[in-house]
Amino acid sequence: MSSTNPFSGDPERDRRNFAILMNAIADLFGPRELRDLMRNAVDRAILVTEAERGILLLDAGDGTVPEVARDNKGIDLPLTQRYSQTVVERVASSGEAYKTVDAADPTAASLGASVLELKLLSIMATPLVVKGERLGVLYVDSTVHTKEFTHADFELFRTLGEMIAMAVLVARLNAEAAEKQRIEQQIALAGAVQSRLLPKNPSPPPGYDVAGQGRPCEEMSGDYYDVIPLADGRVALVVGDVSGHGIGPALYMSSTRALIRGLMGEGRDALEVVGSLNRFLAQDMEDNSFMSLFLGVLDPGSRRLTYASAGHNPPILLRATGSIEELGCTGPVLSVFEDASYRLSDPIELGSGDALALYTDGIYEAHAEDGSMYGEERFRESLERHVRAGDSAAGVVDGVLADLDGFCRGRPLDDDITFLVLRVR
Predict the structure, then answer these.
(1) pLDDT tens digits along 114-156
(2) Which domain holds residue 338?
(3) Is residue 151 part of a domain?
(4) Is the pTM of the predicted complex or chain greater than 0.70?
């Protein structure tokens, strides 16, 4: 606060001023919305000065803008009404409070035509400033010829302005904090809804074991996996990864899930689905964004898997015989080229004890506290160890992710992680 002295030396008046300031503290710093606080502040300023009207203006970057205007009866006034903009601009730019005399004074002409035309007897305006941050201006005026603002009125008004500035800043920060909390709650809710879209306990066809897990690095994930039973008894296995992470990628991924399920439900084959997805994303996705996707269709009876892979990390097929194969891409990532072409893989024969691991690159791009990356070699070693140990699909998923956790030691993820394992019993 500045060194303004709101007390006049008159004991009775000083007691009144002290009571006014104490009541102002209780009113201004109580729990209330910013708009209500500003109305209360203007009413308090009118009460203190016995002005006819008051206006609270806030800084808008390129000038001050009226936010609340009130009269001495506590009624809101139109924000379009005239006031001395010259006085307000002078106070806002100089950071110094200002008090005028009546409009008949020769110096009043320098304060603009509105002072003369509105026949304003007295005007007071004080800047709303907190630690050098200019928030706006508090303004009061009067045309009643029996009232001229005194020096004591002026000092009390300036002190009240300092209190109002602090109260406005606190209310604004509280409002921002409340809005931030509201947004965070909405994001958390959206993340919870998204997580429920993932198959928690997918039902594998007879003779197979399947398990998956997704871990977002933020509240919402741009990764996606799904296990979709088809009407003819086949099963679709899906893993996707939208570039980036957070709300935007999560929205694209949710749309992708709905589109894949809809198209597969219509009996489309994997190649048609991937082509349709690419055209959809190429039209709607932001520039420099893309999505990788693996879509495989398993015929449980024949143990044959065919797939289309749009630039996705090669799934790893660990054979019971000990060999390891990678399922390469059959086309580019989605959304980059609207006319991109894709092909369907040749059928892959699965055998008893084989395990297929589908994943996103967030697994091997995770880092430890010292900055070292988990890497593909550690990931593959962990995967092979748990598969060779005869773990179930859920055991492989849990075991690999536990190894990753042991490496990261609590360090936050750098990217979303998705891991899906299919085992042939």
Answers:
(1) 555 556 668 899 999 988 889 999 999 887 565 577 777 888 8
(2) 198-424
(3) yes
(4) no
